[in-house]
């Protein structure tokens, strides 16, 4: 089977992508990279539960790598959990400086040492960030090839799909075990942040039931 490393965050998109690619006959190596961000402990717990629940024969055990950014991000909302972008903010409010650059650098080295020549990410249509362009990904492929002499291919199978289209692909999966929130409360989705709003909007279609557990609050 072709080997593909999938950068998973615990969110719906990358979780669904992992199973989607596994169903297509690929050997999947889910890869989670810890930055030390506010929501990561909860997110990782959900991801581990999702993978256990899916128990797909083509999905290998989760690999967890460390790449701390707290010394770079300092007092950024993603580290402190304060002034987190809420449901009224635009998509670009949740930009994390250099995130894909950092992820692919670490993941590229991991792939080269583990004999894997393809890494997949799950950005969707309309992603506005500068590190999510065709030019950026081609440049990263070239950089890995030059630095490691390893022919890494970076793919984005969902780059032309919307959130609701991806949810439709994974509608039979345990999506209640995926996690999208950037300000979790009591290990639940807060229901009010930018990413929760995106999740809720994706479910906002007739006949679609959102099984996500949102914090009700006092």
Protein model, in words:
The protein contains eight helices and five strands, in the order βαβαβαααβαβαα. The radius of gyration is 17 Å and the shape is globular. Helix 2 links the parallel strand 2 (27-34) and strand 3 (63-66). The longest helix is centred in the first third of the chain and has 15 residues, at 40-54. Helix 1 packs across helix 7 and helix 7 packs across helix 8. The chain is α/β, with parallel strands linked by helices and 218 residues long. It has a five-stranded parallel beta sheet, with helices on both faces.
Overall morphology: globular
Helix content: 25-40%
Order of helices and strands: EHEHEHHHEHEHH
- Strand arrangement within the widest β-sheet reads 3-2-1-4-5
Determine Rg (CA atoms, Å).
Answer: 17 Å
β-strand amount:
5-15%
In short:
With 218 residues, this protein is an alpha/beta fold. The chain has 8 helices and 5 strands.
Could you outline the blueprint of secondary structure elements for this entry?
Blueprint: E1 3-7, H1 12-23, E2 27-34, H2 40-54, E3 63-66, H3 70-73, H4 77-80, H5 99-113, E4 118-120, H6 134-148, E5 153-155, H7 163-169, H8 194-202
Parallel strand pairs: 1-2, 1-4, 2-3, 4-5
Helix pairs in contact: 1-7, 7-8
List keywords for this structure.
8 helices; alpha/beta; five-stranded parallel β-sheet; 5 strands; 218 residues
